[in-house]
Amino acid sequence: MIIRPVQSVLVALLLFITSSLFAQHASENEAVEHDGVSIESHDEAFNAGNMILEHIVDAYEWHILTYGDFHLSIPLPIIVYHKGSFITFLSSKLHHGHSPALFDENKDLIHAVEQGAPEHPVFGLAVMHEGAHKGKLAYIKVADYVNHHVIVEDIEAGMPTDLSITKNVVSLWISLILILVIFFSVAKSYKKRKGMAPKGLQSALEPFIVFIRDDIAKESIGEKKYEKYVPYLLTIFFFIFFNNLLGLIPFFPGGANLTGNIAITMVLALFTFIITTVSGNKNYWTHIVNTPGVPWWLKIPMPLMPIVELMGLITKPFVLMVRLFANITAGHIIVLGFISLIFIFGNMHPVAGYGVSIVSIAFSIFLTFLEFLVALIQAYVFTLLSALYFGAATEEHH
User: Fold this and answer.
1) pTM attached to this predicted model
2) 337-358 pLDDT, tens per residue?
3) Domain locations in the chain?
């Protein structure tokens, strides 16, 4: 009975400490200006919108915490293809995105810029803080560098070919390693304990595996053809579920919004679309091109039904992509929104900040537990719909 209150206090304390890491403080940084447009952001006060966006979008470094002028982050490799050669350097040279990395005519990084003594910079790479390419690297042409201010001659047209190892890429690698370690361990347990009751990690994951096999794959695809789709369905379920859970952990190696990145959900939906299209049998394509039971005038003079059916082929993976992206991103935004209230009211008056923090943390705890349920539901829905699409593609004519 004592354990539950202690757990609640620890969760509240964890969220309070985590929320304090989001505090933004005004600081004097290098400025990059071009025609009055700043490439660097100058946040003189806490900006909830910027804070939320910074935590849900991809980044060139893995930010741990910010306290005053102290920044703790893990630098990641920046890899850019520029005019026939690769430029590589660590994201720490961008100073958390507040200053550009400058290069000479040999495309060598100019380290002396940090001490205010440039060696004739020719061009630079800076993180855009506004506009359509916000958060992305952009080329800049440097005219001069005076008093720690980069005078930009021009912003080159187009964006660089960016092959950088970003936060989401590292999170993807971490989740893949985690999944491989877990399931190689479970597979080894099945071999050792064949015919015996499951134990440990095997016991925890077996209900999920059996449920996906029997209640999703077998029911949606059919007993004759379901087995070859089970490996994919298991992979997609656990990949989404584990990454959803990692996104809820507020500290390294969690905190990346991988399944809330539309590029990731697009690739997952594309896999389902390709498998569905390749698996489609004659009956499946007949229903799309020449739907039985539909009047001929809807198929020949004005082929409305074939057009509608072909649009459905694109709509299905699009729905998969948007549903997962929107639900995971919305959950993070709501939690971060409640945490932002602490600093918004705190800027008005410290007492108001402490008062609102009680309500904000309470709602954040509730929504965090709700997000655990959403993490499971979204993995289940994506897997179920994929199985239904496979079943429709392989269904025989009756």
Assistant:
1) 0.79
2) 888 888 888 878 777 778 888 8
3) 29-162, 167-394
